[in-house]
Structures are given as structure tokens and as C-alpha cells.
TrEMBL record:
GO molecular function, one term: nucleotide binding
InterPro entries named among the record's database cross-references: Ala_DH, Ala_DH/PNT_CS2, AlaDH/PNT_N, AlaDH/PNT_NAD(H)-bd, NAD(P)-bd_dom_sf
Protein known as: Alanine dehydrogenase
Segments forming domain Alanine dehydrogenase/pyridine nucleotide transhydrogenase NAD(H)-binding: 149-297
Keyword Oxidoreductase: yes
Enzyme Commission designation: 1.4.1.1
Length: 373
């Protein structure tokens, strides 16, 4: 198989879909790899690193898309990239289709087969290709939230850990999954007073058993959430429904009850955001204000630490990438039902039910799509 990796073109996206090590592994499996010149520069990987791994360099994304059987990326294909996809081509990347009808329509029109990192599962019910970026984003959230809280950036002027005689910042993390757990650990490590909200009693028991008094936890009802949000200096939205649009957990009306200058950090923004007032921002212009509340809603937070993120993502995606290349997507998905769960689009049909529900589009089950392929 010919595997192609173009340069990411989403604003301030510095990650790359394949590391030189991944390219070397693919070449060792008998495949050819083509990398767009400069694709790895943002993550600290030089063109020479890819050449040493056995990959070939091409000048343009057009050449990559025109020649590759499988396109490997990080972020969802942008409009100009979607025009280059073709029938029968395999796309392996993050998609986040539920809040993105334009991308969904373009992928369906292209006739490509698209497997989304964020809906591939594992035997434990986890999301192994989303987890490493969730870990990165969770650990970044208190860091960027602390920056947002600084008065010069529009925030309340509150220090996360306080100082002797002055109370620390109050941080509420909505969601106790991978993102929320890592966010809570870092926020607590910065000295903040942290409470995690979740609706799973088993998850709350796990957090209590593992972390004890490092941070608090509480069952998430609408009343409990509103009460804690109103007293918080920072709220981190860390709720995920796999493949579906994120639920709106803080309304615009609630902002008037919050502390002026409080920070909302929406890690769920890729799935539409979990605050009613959330809209995607970029690293170049990350923060905006609504009703006196500062919003940090960067849609590719892990891109800020591109080298760490690229290596972590590459570690997780490589086994799946090699299976897809070695066997072809049909055999690989037939052999691995967890990889089949990543199938979102095939030959003009939507194959992921949560996306179809969110966008009102008819869905063909991935099992039937596989049989028909």
C-alpha cells in the first residue's frame, strides 16, 4: 500500500500524522510512504529524518492525495483537502463529524472510506486513539485556564495555588473521564481547590479510591453543577459522548451568576462544546468574553505541544495503521470489531449512528457496509 501524510493546514496545527519511526515501521512492512516536505517541522521532525526512515518526499498535498491509497492525518480534512479525496481512498484521522455537517457532506460526496480515530474502541470499552490526546488536553486545560485567569488576559486575577493567607482558585471539572482526571490532577498539583463532577457512581468511587483527598468529587446533577459553577474561578468542560455532539451543561443564562472574570475551558469543543456559549477558537486568538466570563475554546489544544502530542498519538495509531496497510481496510475491520467501530463513512454512506442522529442523516450499519464492500 502507498501511505501518504500531508502537512496539516488547520490554523496553528503543528502535529503531523506520521512520525519518522512510524514511516520506518510501514516501510519495513513492505509499504511505500510519501510525506509532504516540511510536514513534520512543527513537531521537530526534519525531512531528512523521514528520508532516513525510507519515506519519499513530495512537494505538495495535491501530489500526496493523488498518489496515496491511504491518507494519514491528525485533524479532520479541511475543505480544500476534502476536494482532493477520491472514491476508494482510505482516510485515517480524527474526524469529529457530529458538529460538522459540511465535512460530513463532503466526505460522503467524495466516495472515500473514512475511519475516525475518536470512535475506534478497545476491549475495555475505551477509546485508545482518543485517549492520548485526551490526556494531553486534560493536562493542558488547567495550564491554559491559569493563563486565562490572569488579569491582563481578562480574567479574575486569581492565582491557582493562592499564597499563605489567601485561598487558592476554585476549579470545577465537569466529567471524570480521561480528560477530567488528568485536568484534576494537574489543577490540584498547582494547588487549586478542585472538584470533579460525574454521573457515574463507579467512576466517582474509582476517583476516590485512587486519588483520595488530592481532589474532591461529587455526583453531577443540574443543581449541583449550577451551585459549583457559580462559585468557581475556573470550569473545565471534559464531557464526551463518543462520536456524538457534546451536551450543553452550562447555559448562557448561568453566566450572569458566575464570578466576573471566571474562566471556562471547553475541552469538548471538537464535538461542539459543552457550554452553550462555546465557539471554536485558535491558538493565535484563543480567548473571548461573553457576559464577563472568559472562554478558552481552542479546537486543537494538543497542537500547542506538538512534539509530545505527535509521539503520543503515533504510539497509539501505529498498530492500527499497520493492520490497515497490511490487510486492507476491509480485512482489517473484519478481523477487528474495535477498528470497525471507527468506520464513519464508506462509499457515500454514513456508518456511525451517533453522527447520523446528530445530523439527521440515514445511517448504514458498519457491518452491512463491510459486507457490501
Amino acid at each position: 500500500m502507498k501511505i501518504g501524510c500531508p502537512t496539516e493546514i488547520k490554523p496553528q496545527e503543528f502535529r503531523v500524522g506520521m512520525t519518522p519511526d512510524a514511516a520506518r515501521e510501514a516501510v519495513n512492512h513492505g509499504h511505500s510512504v510519501v510525506i509532504q516536505k516540511g510536514a513534520g517541522a512543527g513537531a521537530g521532525f526534519a525531512d531528512a529524518d523521514y528520508e532516513a526512515a525510507g519515506a519519499a518526499l513530495l512537494d505538495t498535498a495535491e501530489e500526496i492525495f493523488a498518489t496515496a491509497d491511504m491518507i494519514v492525518k491528525v485533524k479532520e480534512p479541511q475543505a480544500v483537502e476534502r476536494k482532493m479525496l477520491r472514491e476508494g481512498q482510505l482516510l485515517f484521522t480524527y474526524l469529529h463529524l457530529a458538529p460538522d455537517p459540511d465535512q460530513t457532506r463532503d466526505l460522503l460526496d467524495s466516495g472515500c472510506t473514512a475511519i475516525a480515530y475518536e470512535t475506534v474502541t478497545d476491549a475495555n470499552g475505551g477509546l485508545p486513539l482518543l485517549a492520548p490526546m485526551s490526556e494531553v488536553a486534560g493536562r493542558l486545560a488547567p495550564q491554559v485556564g491559569a493563563w486565562t485567569l490572569q488579569k491582563a488576559n481578562g480574567g479574575r486575577g486569581v492565582l491557582m495555588g493562592g499564597v499563605p493567607g489567601v485561598a487558592p482558585a476554585k476549579v470545577v471539572v465537569i466529567g471524570g473521564g480521561v480528560v477530567g482526571t488528568h485536568a484534576a490532577r494537574i489543577a490540584a498539583g498547582m494547588g487549586a481547590d478542585v472538584t470533579v463532577l460525574d454521573r457515574s457512581l463507579n467512576r466517582l468511587k474509582y476517583l476516590d479510591d485512587v486519588f483520595g483527598n488530592v481532589f474532591k468529587n461529587q455526583y453531577s446533577t443540574a443543581g449541583a453543577t449550577a451551585e459549583l459553577v457559580n462559585t468557581a474561578d475556573m470550569v473545565i468542560g471534559a464531557v464526551l459522548i463518543p462520536g456524538a455532539a457534546a451536551p450543553k451543561l452550562v447555559s448562557r443564562a448561568q453566566l450572569s451568576d458566575m464570578k466576573p472574570g471566571a474562566a471556562l475551558v471547553d475541552v469538548a469543543i471538537d464535538q461542539g462544546g459543552c457550554f452553550e456559549t462555546s465557539r471554536a477558537t485558535t491558538h493565535a486568538d484563543p480567548v473571548y468574553e461573553v457576559d464577563g466570563i472568559m472562554h478558552y475554546c481552542v479546537a486543537n489544544m494538543p497542537g500547542a505541544v506538538a512534539r509530545t502530542s505527535t509521539q503520543a498519538l503515533g504510539n497509539a495509531t501505529l498498530p492500527f495503521l499497520l493492520n490497515l496497510a497490511d490487510k486492507g481496510w476491509k480485512q482489517a475491520c473484519d478481523d477487528d470489531p474495535h477498528l470497525l467501530n471507527g468506520l464513519n463513512v464508506h462509499a457515500g454512506k454514513l456508518t456511525y449512528f451517533a453522527v447520523g442522529k446528530a445530523l439527521g442523516i440515514d445511517v448504514l450499519s458498519p457491518q452491512l457496509a463491510l459486507k457490501a464492500a
